[in-house]
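Human: Here is a favour to ask of a fellow structure person. Comparing notes only helps if you start from a blank page. I am asking you to supply a protein in sequence and structure-token form. Write it directly below this note and I will take it from there.

Assistant:
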Amino acid sequence: MTKSGNKRQIMVGHANTIHDPAICILEGDNVFAESFERHMQCKRAWDGGLYYSARPISQALTDCNLWPVSNAEVQVLTTWDTQDLKSWKTPGTISLLPVRAQSERIGTTWRFEQLLKSILTEGHPSMAAPLSPRPDIRVTSKTLSHHLSHAATCALTSPFEDCVVMVLDGFAEDRCSAFFHFHDNRFDPIETGPLKSLEREVVNRSFGTAYAVATSLCGFKPTEGEEWKVMGLAGYGLERPEIQDFFNAHTCVDGLIVEFSWMDRAALKDLEELVGGFREVGDPDTLSAADLARNFQTCWEDALIAVASALDEMKLSPNLAFGGGCALNSSANGKILNRTGFEQLHVPCAPADDGNALGAALYEAHCVRAIPRLAEVHSPYLGSRTPVAEIERIIAFGGIAYDRAEDDTALCAHVADILVRGGIIGWMQGSAEFGPRALGNRSILADPRSVEIKQRINKTVKFREDFRPIAPAILDERGPEYFEDYQPSPYMERTLKVRCEKQGDIPSVVHVDGTARLQSVRRAWNPLFHDLLVAFDALTDVPVLANTSLNVMGKPIVHSVQDALLVFFSSGLDHMVIDRYVLSK
């Protein structure tokens, strides 16, 4: 543990955006990070910070092995500079983005800090330790700007000592993008030009706002994170020159500044005529928006690549770290290295606002207190551990059919055999992933060789649209066999082209356009998941598994064993594997 004098030094990062609130606890080499949506089981936890309960905070302290806490200096680090926030209203053009006033964000921050202080100094019924005052704990707080929090998340989890940082999202305190040169453990801002107005920034210059508006025009809900649906739907669309010309004519990139002028009412009316009408929310004909999605995605990607190229031309570093909500666009990410001069790209496991809890804590540790950087934060497995005692209690009283493997080798062999025979399994192991991707610890897994598996998962397990893709998890050492211009993708953060000769071998994970959003797996990153892939490969000569998140549409990834069992018994999953227990129906 880290000490200053005789006191323990604990840093608590708090992602305090109105959506995607999260907590990170950092002490020495002990790191814990988790989104509050997991505890709440409410997707993105909109306004969740206004209703904080003690349980997720106390569980975080317990999972991080920091309870009971005594004789400690605890610093809370929030991810918006509340002194610099302006109270402003989003223009009607983009009223689909619910923006809260400064007072509400400050109120959220205050509630979190007061609740944390109460838990630490007075105890709480949800904690195992007895309730007793702890006057030797001092809780202080400070703020970090929103974009600097993003920059810290992606640079300080990267393998780079020197890199260019690109942050693209909806908006921050006074602008919607930020660029830095990270070196010597500091972030030097890269100037983009004069700021005209916050309103102009959000309406015209925001990659995140542009994607949110396009999501709405395609009949999806950006407030529920359905931008991913636009990215998936784009593969089904046709290139329409008239739509592409419209977007190109209304998109201008000048160095690091982009202008999306198509988002005013007059331009949107012209676009509506070109596409033959915008799809309404709830319209079952999702493919009616495919052409719009395809041509918008192409233009948006081109603009993003142009900005990245402008950064590369500055020749500050061959390495690029990319953060902000726009870094979740895996299709664009997969093109950056091939279309710019950057040699390496790092996108963190949680590049959006939830990840800022981690970034704020890391910034304080490494850039302010000069604590050496830790290898552990390269891991995405920073969340709550699988409660084995919980599943054992449920099995003892629940009458659930199960097998228990003697060791990990037997478990992987047994599960691989189930998968080869066409079973779809839930897989809950170890510590939960931080961020939106299931990376082999909270996953639904299946045989990628089956043409029907994708439809079965979407229709009977996830209960979502047919066009939604399933990701391949692949042994990293075999990646070049299956993907053109292979790049390791440890966090399922980039989309690459599947080799033509391999597409027929893994049809359930190849998107309609021949691409796939892959997860690269090495034993050093996740030994058990790696061994399961090896066991499946030994039976099939295919080092790939179909992998999607362990949840149903509209819900976050499962948090508790009860969450996992609810998905198991209310969906078409064939088996649920929790620790070494293989449950059957």
Observations:
- The longest helix spans residues 290-313.
